[in-house]
Amino acid sequence: MTDVSPEAMGLVIREHRLALTPPMTQEELAARADYGKGGAVSISRIERGLISPGERRLAAIALALRLTPAQLTQEAEERTRSLARERGQRPVKLRDQVAETKRRHAAINEKVAQRSQITQELGEAFNHVHDSARDEFFLRFVELAESISGAPEPERPGEEEIESTGETPTAIRVEAMSAGIANAIRGAAAGGATGAAVGGAAAYGAFTAAALLGTASTGAAISTLSGVAATNATLALLGGGTLAAGGAGMAGGVLLLTGMVAAPAAALAAAGFYVLRQRRTKREEERLRTEVEVAEAALNQSQHGFDTMIDVLHRATAIMEYVSVHGTHALEKWRAGLPPEPRDWESLGHEGQARYREFLTVAGCLVAVSSINVSALLTAEPGALREMDEAVDATLRYADRTIKSIV
User: Fold this and answer.
1) pLDDT of 102-140, one tens digit each?
2) Domains of the chain, with CATH numbers?
3) Contact at 8 Å (CB) between 6 and 50?
4) To the nearest 10°, the Cα dihedral for 49, 55, 59, 65?
5) pTM for the full model?
6) Is 149 helix (H, G, I), strand (E, B) or coil?
């Protein structure tokens, strides 16, 4: 969809929605396109050109509007060209040029503000459910697991195993993360200080670091288990999200907009003086228009990364919410069936041991999702962004499928 502007796609979707008999509301379109809670807000943002639907979302919207994705895309491409022609007709009079440039300047400022608001809302929503999953599932599981003596050392994937099993890179990485968590639990149970006893944020940070920075049976760092990753960028994205107190990756605080906003903001700041002037010369108008065009180009270039980030945050939030609700319920059932303390591995029985291993996998999935480096999506070049998008999509799909099969 590189030839389609978000504005054009939004206009086409809105027109088709209102052309139905009776006209479809944004709430109805959101429901039919399988958006979750608050989906009407997403539809509104799409129609206003703030975000663009990804392929999966576009297909669902097209079906709801009784169109094919190809039909919707073709109309949006034609509208994109039409809008470009209209805006390419520069006013003749300087007064009209000034008015048009001011309008474009204001539109960029508004879009930057809207992007910031959207990012903050979604980042805070993710952080909220992530912290709930951390406290109600992850740390409770760690506390229970530490009370079980004699748990076997988990087998960690080695490079030879990767070559022979044919498993997916994401499955191998989650397995390695789960093994790192298990070994940290064993160390804490033996008297280490990484357990839940040290308290929420620090404990979670310790176990996340153990998952991300652990080693395989060969002694190789997890991040070097390739055959498992296409590029260094992908490795950094999935295996090295920046840790922060109280969380990792996306959970480390409200997301920075870095490259998405920096270039437009700089251009607009340079132009701001001229915008405020009541009168300006033709030369000043040319300078301002150039700065505005730079800002528009920067926003357009970052659109795909921004849209990818929005999709990732929506999906990651849904996964964390599922763990927080259903994972916590499943964990409580397991806890209720455990033998009284002191308890050892053999006393769990076959079913209890199997559940322990499954919860380790859920914990590994949780870390894999929470360590996705979202800010990298905003600053990546187009080629790298495609690879990152594919890697993140694989992680989210695997985590969602695996967690739901367990809890």
Assistant:
1) 888 888 878 887 887 888 788 888 888 888 998 899 989
2) 1-89 (1.10.260.40), 113-256+304-406 (no CATH)
3) yes
4) 10
5) 0.77
6) strand
